UniProtKB/TrEMBL annotation:
Ranges where the Thymidylate kinase-like domain occurs: 10-201
The organism's place on the tree of life at top rank: Bacteria
Entry's Gene Ontology BP terms: dTDP biosynthetic process; dTTP biosynthetic process; dUDP biosynthetic process
Protein name per Swiss-Prot or TrEMBL: Thymidylate kinase
Record's keyword terms, sorted: ATP-binding, Kinase, Nucleotide biosynthesis, Nucleotide-binding, Transferase
A Pfam family reported for this protein in Swiss-Prot or TrEMBL: Thymidylate_kin
Reaction(s) catalysed by this chain's protein: dTMP + ATP = dTDP + ADP
A GO-annotated cellular component: cytosol
Annotated positions binding ATP: 12-19
Organism: Kushneria indalinina DSM 14324
Gene: tmk
Function: Phosphorylation of dTMP to form dTDP in both de novo and salvage pathways of dTTP synthesis.
Regions annotated as coiled coil: none
Length: 213
């Protein structure tokens, strides 16, 4: 009988380095003989990526309602779970995702002001109890993240164009989630050098794999 895989997520605000460190986690696990599927939210499937495009585009003439934003996030997640996450875990593969439901509580809950009990209701309805085994929260001061976004350049999406107070609320939302689930959500100081951040992530993964084994 195939052992179910593990589910690891990376969380954090804009500019925290999730995509870069997602690759590091993937390589770390593959080097240890673990079969890994990497993905992202919103997105991860062709349909969910189309929903992602709607969420990120923005339209000044027809702005997206906050509740519509929340429902689109969970619509994409339902597709993602059905087509990617659950099948991979059932095959015994490990899934590493750039964001999952903690981001919803931080962005749509803390930052947008949607009641957490409404989000929790959708979480239960869509996920049916499925949650990450480990979440690495890449945390840094909002001003530092803004500097990184500015240095990166290019056109910003609808979320990246939000003001600093929005991202302060996002960070507070993640802080609250980490306090509620300290056994799962592990903060990582993402304001350090990339080398130090990945050293810390590697150490955390070493500890976690030892515990799971």
């Amino acid at each position: 009988m195939t052992q179910p895989g593990r589910f690891i997520t990376l969380e954090g605000g804009e500019g925290a380095g999730k995509s870069t460190n997602l690759s590091f986690v993937r390589d770390y696990l593959q080097d240890r003989g673990i079969s890994v599927v990497t993905t992202r939210e919103p997105g991860g499937t062709p349909m969910a990526e189309r929903i992602r495009a709607l969420l990120l585009a923005g339209d000044e003439e027809d702005p997206l309602d906050d509740l519509a934003e929340l429902l689109l996030v969970f619509a994409a997640r339902a597709q993602h779970l059905s087509q990617v996450i659950r099948p991979a875990l059932a095959r015994g593969e490990w899934v590493v995702s750039d964001r999952f439901t903690d981001a919803t509580f931080a962005y749509q809950g803390s930052a947008r002001g949607i009641a957490c009990d409404r989000i929790a209701m959708l979480e239960q309805f869509v996920q049916q109890g499925l949650a990450p085994d480990l979440t690495l929260w890449l945390d840094m001061p909002v001003t530092h993240a803004a500097d990184r976004l500015a240095a990166r350049g290019g056109e910003r999406d609808r979320f990246e164009r939000e003001r600093g107070d929005f991202f302060e609320r996002v960070r507070q939302g993640y802080r609250m989630r980490a306090a509620q689930a300290p056994e799962r959500i592990v903060p990582v100081d993402a304001s350090q050098s990339l080398e130090q951040v990945q050293h810390d992530i590697g150490r955390l993964l070493d500890q976690q794999l030892s515990s799971w084994n």
